[in-house]
Amino acid sequence: MPPVAPRGLTPGPPRRAGLDAAELAALAGDVDALPGRGWCGGAVVAAGRGPYLALEHAAGWALRWTAAGTEAEHPEPVRTDTPFDLASLTKLCTAIVAVRRAERGAVALDREVAAYVPEFAAAGKERVTVRQLLTHTSGLRAELPFHDGHGLELLWREPLTESGRCYSDLNFLALQAVLERATGQRLDALVRADITGPLGMTATGFGPVPGAAATEDQRRPRAKADRGMLRGTVHDENAHALGGVTGHAGLFATARDLAVLCRALLAGGEVDGVRVLSPASVALLLDAPGLGFAVDQPWFMGELAGRGAAGHTGFTGTSLVLDRATDTFLVLLATTVHPVRPRSADSRPRAAAATRLHRAVLRAGRAPDASA
Question: 214-218 and 228-231 as β-strands: parallel, antiparallel, unpaired?
Fold first, then answer.
């Protein structure tokens, strides 16, 4: 049986999408080289423009090592339909749910978090708003050690210590609590109801996910827990300690599913007659400074940055970029933590991939063409 076409997208040649075939071939070649360079265990890239999915390519291994430095007896190659641990790309779905529920009146973006979660008001946090969580301007620090056996009471007791913008997982744990209190539903149910169900993203959800690309042989001191080789269970130690369904990490997805999400956002919140957001809500998410989404960040968007490109990265090696100026999207899912996390992050391959896509637009010199 042939694969079902993704909602809102038609797989097709680069020319039909208004993209340069040579640049997309070079992008695929770049991805092919990443496992051999040691940047990742395996990777899948998906890219397109308008309603066309012009590139879907896999390289490397879904499972190559069973423990640090030990080769698997039967290594498994990555396929284009392999699910990956999205890590912080989860935040994008949490943000979309928040804006969707704001449309419906369940949540007010400029209302205090404590109106929904009274215990959050402790330690001087009573004036923090939902919008400040989404823009990382709440004053919360980056993270807390839930992995050491603490529950969310650690967050409720936490004072504000940061000024300006501080990227923080705590913001999205608090946002999860707001959404769950306001709706009476768990975050996983909200993601299904508001995003993955309507868009037909059947390969996207919280773990466990058998067959997902393996991540890390997780051991102290390089990691914050001793869990062994992880596959299909969330890599993030705090998300794992809090049950695996969290606002900042825990989702798994395929590149094709995320391409559908990109198309929905680029199309103003509606694809194939299915509306998940209003155009105004999409603008809230993607316009600077972005709600959940980062805007114009060259360190992972390359030459796509500069005219309002929006997206995010994840610690496991994932990234997503959408550029409304050219109606293009790029999804790069990789396992940069397989078999162990690197000593320092290197986002140059992410930026290089985005630059390839940008140049594919420039060199094509034409818009998508249904007749091509």
Answer: antiparallel
